[in-house]
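wait is this the right file?? whatever heres the structure
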């Protein structure tokens, strides 16, 4: 069965549980690789807790201005260690990863500066931030210019990047590692290191900014360890471990992080203000659990890749491919199948399992989006979720799972719902 694709009317006569059990056997070697990465990242986190002498009093809450918040300060030291960066800003005042990206862009760019994306168009939620879509509060409205260079065959267009940088004065280069709602592959740390070396050989003053959402702890090396100047991620994704209720981080060179802190709060006060409001314990505990939770999400994604491949669907990445992020693409090529699979994930969720999700006009997106996210924290992508825009080729973007058993159960329910609605032609 390991090399057999199950198609057509055969599907409904098969025992879905047996298919999943076979897929688990096929995935054993991949699971072992994930466990090894989990152990390395767990040691990294534990060592940082010890180095920075995290103690119970760091859980204490501050209010108002948030002066002298020792727990908040130690959190930022721990994150900096774990991410391999000079400094980090970790705050609940960040509403989302997109908000942290926006703060970072506005902190680093000034009127007449040029922002260049070399991984194609960024995630849809940045369209109005950059000014790709008109907004009077965009970077464009402040006279900041934008250009982009698309990927070629799932890699950077090195020749075009080199030519562009020799002909234009670029202030910030933005790279989005995860695929977003696109059909490309996510960007590996090896490709990132290669392109950073090229950029710095041409102009060492260019600021290289990485959108690292969905990618943390998938491997053991983060972008700031291979030359990136600054990177951004959300705490309701990987590093929050399913425990942090909100927030995000910006990590990188000290002077750049300081600029971001003053853009988040105000010049002259920067990181010295911002009350923790009792969230310190959840952020620390979430980071402590993150290696294990990310591993569970990866195992769920690998299993989903193999199961859906056995059922005759296109998947990316394949179950044996190296992973860059926690996202699994399932390419349905028809809207009904995308909708029913997504609804199955919702039906298997711990929260709002009685809801039947519908596609809707989600703020920040150009197409209707269907999204299953029956999570304890609203919008949490490290808890199992599945979503996708209703546009060709009708891809489900599945990610997360706090534990592997819950992920497997949800996959079973999604497949049952899909096949029960005649989702395979």
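ok assuming it is, sequence goes like this
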């Amino acid at each position: 069965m390991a090399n057999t694709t199950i198609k057509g009317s055969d599907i409904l006569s098969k025992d879905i549980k047996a298919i999943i059990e076979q897929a688990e056997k096929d995935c054993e070697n991949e699971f072992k690789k994930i466990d090894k990465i989990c152990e390395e990242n767990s040691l990294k986190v534990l060592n940082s807790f010890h180095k920075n002498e995290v103690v119970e009093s760091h859980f204490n809450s501050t209010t108002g201005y948030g002066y002298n918040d020792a727990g908040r300060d130690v959190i930022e030291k721990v994150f900096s260690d774990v991410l391999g960066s000079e400094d980090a800003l970790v705050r609940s005042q960040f509403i989302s990863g997109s908000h942290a990206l926006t703060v970072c862009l506005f902190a680093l760019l000034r009127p007449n500066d040029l922002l260049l994306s070399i991984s194609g168009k960024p995630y849809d939620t940045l369209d109005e931030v950059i000014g790709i879509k008109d907004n009077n509060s965009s970077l464009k409205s402040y006279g900041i210019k934008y250009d982009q260079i698309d990927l070629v065959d799932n890699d950077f267009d090195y020749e075009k990047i080199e030519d562009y940088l020799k002909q234009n004065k670029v202030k910030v280069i933005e790279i989005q590692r995860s695929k977003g709602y696109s059909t490309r592959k996510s960007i590996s740390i090896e490709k990132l290191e290669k392109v950073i070396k090229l950029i710095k050989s041409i102009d060492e003053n260019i600021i290289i900014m990485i959108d690292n959402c969905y990618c943390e702890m998938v491997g053991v090396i983060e972008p700031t360890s291979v030359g990136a100047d600054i990177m951004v991620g959300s705490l309701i994704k990987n590093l929050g471990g399913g425990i942090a209720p909100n927030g995000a981080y910006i990590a990188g060179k000290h002077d750049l992080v300081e600029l971001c802190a003053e853009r988040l709060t105000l010049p002259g006060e920067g990181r010295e203000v911002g009350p923790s409001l009792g969230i310190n314990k959840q952020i620390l505990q979430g980071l402590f659990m993150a290696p294990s939770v990310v591993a569970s999400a990866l195992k769920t994604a690998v299993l989903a890749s193999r199961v859906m491949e056995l059922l005759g669907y296109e998947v990316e990445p394949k179950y044996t491919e190296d992973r860059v992020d926690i996202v699994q693409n399932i390419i349905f090529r028809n809207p009904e199948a995308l909708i029913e699979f997504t609804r199955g994930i919702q039906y298997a969720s711990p929260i709002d399992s009685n809801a039947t999700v519908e596609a809707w006009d989600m703020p920040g997106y150009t197409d209707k989006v269907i999204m299953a996210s029956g999570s304890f924290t609203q919008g949490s992508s490290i808890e199992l979720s599945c979503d996708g825009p209703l546009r060709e080729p009708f891809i489900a973007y599945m990610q997360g799972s706090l534990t592997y058993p819950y992920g497997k159960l949800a996959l079973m329910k999604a497949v049952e719902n899909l096949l029960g609605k005649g989702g395979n032609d």
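The two ends are 20 Å apart (CA to CA). so i think its the right one actually
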